[in-house]
Amino acid sequence: MRANPQSAIHNPKWIVHRLESVTSTNDVTARMAREGAPEGTVVVAREQTAGRGRHGRRWSSPPGGLYLSIIFRPHLPFEDLWQMAFLAAVASAEAVGQVSGLPARIKWPNDVLLNARKVCGILIKACLRSAVPPAADLQSSIIVGIGINVNNQEFDLEISQTATSIALEVGRPVAVEEVEEALLPRLDARYSRYVAGGFGPILREWRNLDCTAGREVAVSTAEGVVEGRAVEIDPRGDLVIEHEDGTRTCVAAGDVIIRDT
Ligand code: BTN
After folding, report:
1. 81 pLDDT band (50/70/90 cuts)?
2. Mutate to test the pocket of ligand 1, among 26, 68, 71, 155 (most ligand atoms within 8 A of CB)
3. 10 Å Cβ neighbour count for 38?
4. How many A from CA of 63 to the centre of ligand 1?
């Protein structure tokens, strides 16, 4: 890890560490969390050499994108930690929407799309001091990693038809700092609201930005592909799929392909 000269910039809400090149901001932040770094610690890197996505996939992270991870200590039951990813998706979609001037949408569980292509992904990681929840809960932290394709121009072959960047959609370069400045206050506001008022308001906002419900989908899960119409996202964050015969399946984790675009 190589540190930028301005390595720790403090503001009232966030303690932002700016690094030049890291393996993954999630790894750096997890280490800091284990060493006792406070809630609100943010690690932003100009590039990641081993950026990770969901399901162990690679997250291509050349200079020109926004790659950051944040330490939260929300005192949540272990089984509710996924709510932080929904919260981050809402803040990210709003930030991308503001900077691009285009309507950003969320595809379940937490991909942010511009013009139906993925522009942002979120990866959360629980750092437990004890391996046994719920005893671990109050001692734990959660790392929220957010990757936004800002000026990225090229993508790995497997995602070349489904990924995009803000710059590609608006047709001009975009300052990475502008995206960060749009994102952090929105995260702050959502997190304060969540701590004070629970998940209900976040879920309502998430549903307003959602582009999954009501669509014909195929969802790749660990158990196979589930096909049907996405009916809703239920209060546990599961995607409810209705099949042709009227039966329903709740999917807790998977990748959605929207079929009726
Ligand atoms: C996804 O697959 O959609 C999640 C992508 C998350 C990427 C971000 S970039 C910052 C943080 N560090 C990582 O290695 N991954 C996350």
Report:
1. confident
2. 26
3. 11
4. 14
